[in-house]
Design brief:
Strand order of the largest sheet: 3-4-2-1-7-8-9-10
Number of helices: 14
Largest sheet: 8 strands, mixed
CATH superfamily of the largest domain: Glycogen Phosphorylase B
Shape: globular
CATH architecture of the largest domain: 3-Layer(aba) Sandwich
Helix content: 40-55%
Number of strands: 16
CATH class of the largest domain: Alpha Beta
Mean pLDDT: 92
Structural class: alpha/beta
Number of domains: 2
Low-confidence stretches: none
């Protein structure tokens, strides 16, 4: 099978979409499928055997790390896409680059799949731009409803999309690399580093983008409630400087981005994973932490509800109540029996979610949608 993909973000940027996409490209290559990727400018020329075509664009003002493609761009894309002869086009989180792909795929009669990754209407509200929420839903709905399928990463997100008028919504969940992210990578050396030389102190961990909507600043009252705890913040983003000024400097370590075994060791060396963000459509980092055997504290909202059950596989806090977050973390940090039980259950949940299984389900969807093109050709021939 030949699959063309259009993405709004790619390497060297690191986020949940990129993490999912590189696993997908690796899997498609392993299964013998051919792929072509269209991504914003600044992306590498190749990923494995996949050729990457850059689409010119501009820096998104609200998030300088994000390069948005010009949605009206044409260039040589129609010729490249037609020459590749894809069976299906996959639009990942279509906003700008996805519009380029949708327009040219439709013109060439190629069936399309869209996958929903980012809760932009919810983020608009977090940014204080509530007036944009309804127009964003209208714009996203108009794009996704032109594709044969919209794939949601969780049942919770599927319900939200259906409630907002999205058609043909199915769930394509996410997996986790349980060999990489495992409790055996817990390391005295990493605890020394992440606690700034206090390895016996309780270690709280956050992994993700450092942007305002992630609400990492909610960790400040948590640290005040646990004066002996240490906090490791893994990631980068435009909110880092504010966080460095806000969180207790002597008890907080900012590592920047970590990758591969370094990231896996950081996860496994933590005691409690805290993720305050309320608008996650899935929560890759939460599942990675669980795979590493680290109990998680997450909001009672979003895609994490597909696999985090309060008091069984993690701790949930009331989504818009910072004091509820504090209470959940403090309880987990102080109740050893609860911590041990959640540690074991977290790993068990992760072991049931392999990347191979979830990506094979996506490939099956590709084959189903590719059949639409064959049916259209037969009808035209008839």
């Amino acid at each position: 099978m030949r699959v063309a993909l259009f993405t709004e973000t790619f390497l060297p940027k690191v986020d949940g979409i990129v993490n999912t996409l590189v696993h997908l490209l690796d899997h498609l290559e392993l299964r013998g499928h051919e792929t072509l990727l269209f991504a914003p400018q600044g992306s590498p020329k190749f990923y494995g055997r996949t050729r990457v075509i850059e689409v010119p664009g501009f820096t998104f003002p609200l998030y300088p790390e994000l390069q948005l493609a010009y949605p009206w761009y044409r260039g040589a894309i129609p010729q490249i896409l037609d020459g590749f002869e894809p069976d299906v086009v996959h639009l990942l989180g279509p906003v700008a680059c996805g519009l380029v792909g949708l327009r040219h795929a439709r013109a060439l009669g190629i069936p399309t799949i869209s996958s929903y990754h980012t809760d932009l209407p919810g983020f608009a509200q977090r940014w204080g731009l509530s007036a944009l929420s309804r127009p964003l839903w209208s714009a996203l709905r108009a794009v996704h409803n032109q594709t044969e399928r919209t794939l949601a990463p969780s049942v919770t997100t599927q319900d939200t999309l259906v409630a907002n008028g999205f058609d043909n919504v199915e769930v394509w969940t996410r997996g986790v690399d349980t060999a990489l992210f495992n409790p055996g990578r817990r390391s005295p050396q990493w605890r020394e580093r992440l606690t700034n030389g206090n390895p016996d102190a309780p270690l709280l961990l956050y992994v993700g983008r450092l942007s305002k909507e992630k609400r990492v600043d909610w960790l400040r009252p948590v640290m005040q409630a646990l004066p002996n705890a240490r906090l490791a913040v893994v990631g980068e983003g435009p909110f880092r400087a504010e966080l460095e000024a806000m969180l207790p400097a002597e008890r907080t370590v900012f590592t920047g981005y970590l990758h591969g075994e370094d990231l896996a060791s950081a996860y496994a060396s933590g005691d409690v994973f805290v993720f305050p963000g309320a608008n996650e459509t899935f929560g890759n980092v939460v599942l990675e932490a669980m795979s590493a055997g680290v109990p998680v504290v997450v909001p009672r909202s979003g895609g994490v509800l597909d696999f985090v059950r309060h008091g069984e596989t993690g701790m949930l806090f009331d989504t818009d109540d910072p004091s509820s977050l504090v209470q959940a973390v403090v309880r987990l940090a102080r109740e050893e029996v609860l911590w041990q039980r959640l540690r074991a259950e977290s790993r068990r949940v992760a072991l049931s979610r392999s990347w191979a299984e979830t990506l094979d389900e996506l490939v099956a969807c590709y084959y189903e949608v590719a059949g639409i093109r064959r049916q259209r050709r037969l009808r035209r021939a008839a």
